[in-house]
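Hi all, long-time lurker, first post. I run a small reading group and we've been trying to get comfortable going from sequence to structure in the token notation. Rather than ask abstract questions, I figured I'd post a concrete chain and ask someone more experienced to write out its structure so we can walk through it together at our next meeting. Sequence below, copied exactly:
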Amino acid sequence: MKRRSYGRDFGLTIRMLATTGLLGLLYVGFALALLQFAGVGIAPMFVIIVAIAFFQYFTSDKLALRAAGARIVSREEAPALHDMIERLCAMADLPKPKVAFMDTPVPNAFATGRSPKHAAVCVTTGLWDRLEPKEVEAVLAHELSHIANRDVLIMTVASFFAMLAAMLTRFMLYAGMWGGGDRRDNNGPPIWLIVFAVSAVTYAVSYVLIRTISRYREYAADRGSALITGAPEYLMSALQKISSQMTLIPNQDLRKVEGMNAFFIVPAKVKSAAAELFADHPPLEKRIAALAEIARDMGRPVA
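-- Answer (accepted) --
Happy to help. Here is the structure in token form:
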């Protein structure tokens, strides 16, 4: 049996298709509402949305790396990291992605890109310095599983309209506060209030849908890492180390990288239990428990 199937999760694929369909319907309704109530022309809106979507699709890996302040490194600069990724790609039957380093003491890693042939894997200097080689490999296998499942692209595209809705929500709220957008439609409520309500509902539903699939994709990538490496105990150890070391990082360093939390293997901010419903990632305890179950099924040691 090829290792290629090990890194992919068909349950995640079904969920991504379902979530994408629901988000598509939601965004169509969002666009129609703007067309009807805000007087936005269909041609300008279509051109703008398509242009931004294409730009985001073809530059998603570069944008993510730039946003993180990461840089591509050559084999000469990081031979050990390149060797690890090449070995794991051979095991998972994946093309080798670009390799990047992010200069921060925060121990973490992330993957980005629109397809397995156009992807990048980035590790932080904090992770490279704090984890053992086997633990780093387990983290890299987790990120390669994200690439194999193509969930990075889905998350990037799905987040676009959510961000647009959030921006419109804030803009219309300010417009209402400062007396703008008073034009009414058939003696109904002000236009700004209608657009604000539609944008707020779109953002709220998108938020829940995106985070639901975001949590599942982390479980899928954890499982993919365990199956690619054949040693889930190393990912368990890595997750525990990353989480514990995170508490030792100064707050100013954590704040610098919080914008990448949705992509990181472990968020760079400790969340309360009350915020679990809206978290990007499942609780660490549940991830460890799921990996422990996989380890028992594989006959591997569980700490």
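A couple of things your group might point at:
Residues 127 and 218 are 18 Å apart (CA to CA).
Confidence is low (pLDDT under 50) at residues 1-5.
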